[in-house]
Amino acid sequence: MTSSKSMVSMTNSSDTRDDSSLIGASSNSSRSPEVVLSVNHVGKYFQLPTEQASGLKQAFINWTKGIKGYKKQQVLNDITFDVHRGDFFGIVGRNGSGKSTLLKIISGIYVPDAGTVNVKGKLVPFIELGVGFNPELTGRENVFLNGALLGFTREEIEDMYDDIVDFAELDDFMDQKLKNYSSGMQVRLAFSVAIKAQGDVLVLDEVLAVGDEAFQQKCDDYFAEVKKDPNKTVILVTHSMDSVKKYCNRAILIKNGDVIVNGNTEEAANQYTLENLQVEKKETQLRKGEYADGLNSRCPLLKVKPLSSQICKSSDTFRFEVEYEFNEAEDFYLAIALHDLRRGGVAFDTGEKRLKYTEHGHRTVEFELPLNLFNNGDFRLVASLRTLSKKNTEITDMVAFTNDANSCAFAIRDSRNKDYALINDRVMQISQVGSPR
């Protein structure tokens, strides 16, 4: 365990403010908004048990042998960032990156093993839907219970109560027991308590897609208003890059317990997309005579590699190369297909016999793919090496193909594009001919 001191401190802004802070306020209006959350060099690890001592004797034996009985799993390494008043701040990262652990440290649920977290004002965490709700109590009683767990006094909850109930649209049900609510009603009540609580910093963990379509639209309108309020601060953890780009003015991307993008929303969202597209390649030791999936002794190497950035706009031309090794004397073909990962299916295929080659050995061929035809999406280029069929020279037989690990993925992200259809309507349109008959 590190010897450096760690702490989470929270101060209420109403307790620390004095009259002097109001003097000359207008002269400070040009300054950056104050920092309401400061995370400084935060680290966190967990101890995972590896040996179980069934009694004192076994525990003593393990101790004499130097067996600790656990291994250390470092979850967060050295996390540092600031959130200013009025920020809609996004925290993104793949599953297992450390987002939830960081959020629980910010919320005071976990204590960091290194570093400090300072919160100015009242922080309202909303990490899991319905945590702290009791099904045997009424909706009204649960509002007061949940508010108390969030640190509000009864008087404060009474002041917020009408707003909470109005937003949840459950006025006729507040005196019924929570166990009689539908799951959608419970979600609406829990979410309303969180976002309508009069806190200074609201922390939301993957909770934007709650309730039915009408309630989601209501939440969307609420967050659009929050985004405009310079005194409202929201920290959002989500896997939805559309939400990050729509709401957040700043964001960080966490990978393996480290911040790899800090501040730029567009960069964080695009890098997250790239992390998801890239296949995790496990280092496997192949024995002599063994080949990766899709390869063999005839073609021991076939790989598609990007030459351009893997986050593109429709106006870009995506450049890539195919590396192969084929030593047989006969002519051969490379077939390249573009798979649509978001919508499914093959968006484009070169055909089996179009790209014919006579250069044998270990070679590399470069290609270009114009992207102006496509809307936003996630794509993968796969290749196969083929030779003419001995039985029918009109067709080809596949010798080798690229698997997910040695294919090439890329994404199109262009604000001018739509996300639904594959084909860009700036390139192809359906035109009316004549008048209705």
TrEMBL record:
Residues 56-281 form the ABC transporter domain. Residues 1-30 are annotated as: Disordered. GO terms for cellular component: membrane. Belongs to the ABC transporter superfamily. Transmembrane segments: none annotated. One of its GO terms (molecular function) is ATP binding. The keyword Nucleotide-binding applies. Keywords: ATP-binding, Nucleotide-binding, Transport. InterPro entries: AAA+_ATPase (IPR003593), ABC_transporter-like_ATP-bd (IPR003439), ABC_transporter-like_CS (IPR017871), ABC_transpr_TagH-like (IPR015860), Bact_Polysacc_Export_ATP-bd (IPR050683), P-loop_NTPase (IPR027417). This is ABC-2 type transport system ATP-binding protein. Residues 1-14 have a biased composition (Low complexity).
